Structures are given as structure tokens and as C-alpha cells.
Amino acid sequence: MSLLFFKRVLANPLQVGYIVPSSPFLTRQTSRRLDFSKPRVVVELGPGEGCHTRKIVKRMDKNSRLFAFELDEEFVAHLRKQFAHDPRVTILHRNATEMPDVLAEHGITHCDYIVSGLPFLVIPEEARGKLLGSISDAMHEESRFITYQVTTQLCDESHLFELHDKEYCALNVPPINVLEFKKAQAAR
Ligand SMILES: C[S@@+](CC[C@H](N)C(=O)[O-])C[C@H]1O[C@@H](n2cnc3c(N)ncnc32)[C@H](O)[C@@H]1O
């Protein structure tokens, strides 16, 4: 798994963003934030080789759905192989910026959780603004946007998101913040 990750970092360092996949400590910290006491619609942005996806899917109830948006075609092929027999999981070889249209194609207007591994820090400003706007648009009042980031810069996007909870994962390369946002009152 890590060999594939390393190959894709070398092929496209800016798009992949980090040099190794998230650690099991980080995937545990993010996945435990999702509550599957009832069916949920989950969107994952930038799943890479699927370390968070596997943890989330393991916890998902039988009526929940997960849509994963990944740009890298080798990661997509690897993910499709892993989840080929799980009808709850849809792997999309699409840009995260296309999320609203793609969800609409599946008859979904809003989702309950958006889990994002996108390296927002290195995404150019215009694309970042578009992405964050799409994420906020896809959320309802109870939705949560869960993301792991080296900085807490996303807390500045208070017109879109309100910080609900934050923790630090030191046992990851690099050590990272886990940020959980609600949709901002102003964006509802
Ligand atoms: C930092 S890696 C995280 C991978 C994995 N989630 C993890 O934690 O190990 C970021 C991933 O986002 C993907 N990515 C970057 N920009 C994207 C975009 N606009 N739409 C979809 N995927 C994107 C990259 O190809 C890469 O797989």
C-alpha cells in the first residue's frame, strides 16, 4: 500500500501533498467522529490508497453510503479493487470541485459527513475557495466536515464553517490537527 502511495507522490507531489499515508492513529481519530446509529451519506475527498475509507466502511451500517472523490487514476483503480464487492461504496474518478453535480446525479442534495484529506494548504486560492464553497453547500445543519490539516488555517473560513471540535494527532507524519466543522450559521 505505502509503495503505491510513494509512487504517486513522486508522480504528482503537489496533488498528493504528503509523503506517506495517514497513520492508524489518525484514521482512528477521524473515523470515530462518524456516528452510524442511523443511515448516513458520507463523502470522502482525496481518499488516496484508502486508509481512512477502510476504517469508515468498517464502522458503517448496512444502509449508509460512501462516495469517494479521487483525482489520481492509480489510486482510483486500487480503491475500486478494494471495494468492488461493497455496494455501499462508490469510487469516483472525479475532481472534488465537481461534488455538487456528482451528488445530484446520484439523487443526493446534502450529505451527513464530509471527510477530507485534500491538502488545502497547497491548493491555489481560487480552486480552494471553490472547493470550500462546494463543501459548505453540500452540508445541512447537522452535517460535519472533518479534515486533517497541518495548520488550523481553515478556522479563518468562518463565513462557511464554524469549528465544532479540534484535536491533535502527534502520531502521524506530519503531526496534524483533526478539525471538525459545522456549517456556519451565515451559510445556512
Ligand atoms: C494528502 S493525500 C491523502 C490521502 C489519504 N486520504 C491519506 O490520508 O493517506 C491527498 C489525496 O487527495 C487527492 N486529491 C488532491 N486534489 C484532489 C481533488 N481536487 N479532487 C479529488 N482528489 C484530490 C490526491 O490525489 C491524494 O490522493
Write a structural description:
By secondary structure, the protein is α/β, with parallel strands linked by helices. It has one domain (2-187): Vaccinia Virus protein VP39 (Rossmann fold). Helices cover 32% and strands 26% of the residues. The protein has seven helices and seven strands, in the order H-H-H-E-H-E-H-E-H-E-H-E-E-E. The chain has a seven-stranded mixed beta sheet with strand order 3-2-1-4-5-7-6. Helix 3 crosses helix 4. The protein is globular. The chain starts with a helix and ends in a 5-residue tail after the last strand. The model has no long low-confidence stretch (mean pLDDT 94). The structure holds S-adenosylmethionine (SAM). The site of S-adenosylmethionine (SAM) has 22 residues, from helix 2 and helix 4. It comes from Terrimicrobium sacchariphilum. InterPro entries: KsgA/Erm, SAM-dependent_MTases_sf.
Task: Describe the structure concisely.
This protein is an alpha/beta fold.
List keywords for this structure.
7 helices, about 190 residues, 7 strands, Rossmann fold, binds S-adenosylmethionine, seven-stranded mixed β-sheet, alpha/beta
Task: Present the secondary structure layout.
Layout: H1 2-11, H2 13-16, H3 24-31, E1 41-45, H4 51-59, E2 65-69, H5 73-82, E3 89-92, H6 99-105, E4 111-116, H7 125-137, E5 139-149, E6 161-169, E7 176-183
The structure holds S-adenosylmethionine.
S-adenosylmethionine binds at residues 15-18, 21-22, 45-48, 51-52, 69-72, 75, 95-96, 117-119.
Keywords: Methyltransferase, RNA-binding, S-adenosyl-L-methionine, Transferase
Organism: Terrimicrobium sacchariphilum
InterPro entries: KsgA/Erm (IPR001737), SAM-dependent_MTases_sf (IPR029063)
